[in-house]
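Lab meeting, action items carried over

1. Structure of the two-component assembly. Owner: GW. Status: complete.
Input record:
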Amino acid sequence: MRSRVRRYGPPLLLISPSLVLVGVFVYVLIARNLWTSMTDNHTAAQANGRKDVSFVFLENYVALFKSPQFQHSLWNLVLFTAVFLVGAMIVGFVWAWLLERPLPGGRIFQTVYLFPMAISFVASGVVWRWLLNSNQGDSATGLNRLFQMVGLDVLENPWWNQVTFGIAAIAIPAIWQLSGYVMALFLAGFRGVPDDLREAARMDGASSLQMYRHVIFPQLTPVLMSAIVIIAHMSLKSFDLIMSISKPANYQTKVPAVDMYVFKSSFDYANAAAVGTVLLAFIAILIVPYLIQQHRERTR
Amino acid sequence: MSTTTSAPPSAAPLGESSPLASRGRGAPGTRPTPVGRTLRYLAILLGVLFVLIPVYVLVITSFKTGGDASPARAWALPHTWTLENWQRAWTALAPALGRTLSLVIPSTIISSVLGCLNGFVLSRWRFPGADIVFTLILFGMFLPYQAVMIPLLQLVLATEIPNGIPSLILLHVVFGIPITTLIFRNYFETIPHELIEAATVDGAGMLRTFSSVALPIAIPGFVVVGIWQFTSAWNDFLFAVFFSTPRNGPVTLALNNLANGALLTDYGVSMAGALLASLPTLVVYVLLSRYFIAGLMSGSVKG
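Predicted assembly:
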């Protein structure tokens, strides 16, 4: 017993501050948030503790999912995530494939492709708001003006300023910002393919394309899975980009993360907490299996 | 990994530190034809165009005068180049830039130190259940902060830590722990067991092993973690919007206020401001991109 304390006491002591902080700020607060989401805490007086709240169980969730407003947010989230995910995977994968073999200047291109990762969504939102300006015809600026200049007037469109599909336009800057990350993931995947495999395929007389299709691409499946999990979870959390390109009050671009901010701003803490929990549930469905799988690999 | 040829020796244990370095020797495969190579370059340049179009717009618009910003000349170079937008953006953002520095520096240092301690223990001085604890910490990395925001507001209010920079430091430290722990844990995993074991055989306790053996070799880890934390704290908007105002918050909030505050956006000033607010992280990225990428990779690929 004493030797166990001597052996494990110091390391536990060393990491205990972090354990307490993460335990409280993540797990206790998740529980506390769940509680708030099941109360009728909808007013400023209740938020400030000047008026009592009472337990209403799942009432807020039922009301949320029934409201056309929130349904629209969910639709936007699904559409945004689909476009963002597919776009970032394709662009990132193609870039990695293009740069996978040695090439003069290859490193510079990689650095260029990755640079948007270093800047904030708020800063890139400033320029993308200009690029995605919905004006058309004579008053067009941004990409619509560019389309006119190169004779592609037919492509002019209102971008995000459209109710049903507008949110898809905001996936474009998201793709712009994160394709480099996906590229970096795939490049690491390409590097992980043993040279013997390539050599063997070449010996067997496989053409370059055949080698990729049958030998190298299948090896990239785990990387693809990681990339999908990472991009999808970022997409579900998207907030900064939408806030800086559009406005929180814009119906066209509302998503749950924005709704949460709007509820909080009007001191409707119960609904804000409920939206937060919904987001957590979505992300947990994605992340928990991923973390369990990684945990298994570590302990194997 | 045999791709560390171009990495400095100190960075070698990072392994993944140069995942993007080209292969040392030519990859086996068919010789590229001139046509194939030209097509490849064209495709690459198309990507470069996609990435750089917003940069072009940012730069030209930031140097344009108000009268020069008409829709017809939206994509044209400035008639006369002016620094006026930059001066106005600087006046508007300078205080916030200073506050952001006073936020980013302490939160980066504190969360790196905590991450280093945790990473060392979870990798090299395991206790029963260490892997479960690690996985539980990791979940914090993916947590949508919206799911804790309301009780977080109440908690910070209860601790009486003032809104603005002080509470943001606390939040970046706490929510930085998962990623810094992950990076350091993966880093210590790559260090030969013998190094640490030799010290313990000599009778050194854990703290001495940590300070005399682990800490000195952890320096590249600190660079990776430091850059990562610096960039994410500098670019944070979510916590800023909930825990500060444009008057006492970081530069992302001030920039958003500058760009979205007025009814009619002055794009010249906003774009100069966007460039100004991005300069510190861009400089770090250009100078230390290898470490930046290493952080990026360890944030996703397990060691």
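2. GW to write a short summary for the group page. Key points so far: The mean pLDDT of chain A is 90. Chain A touches chain B through 112 residues (CB under 8 Å).
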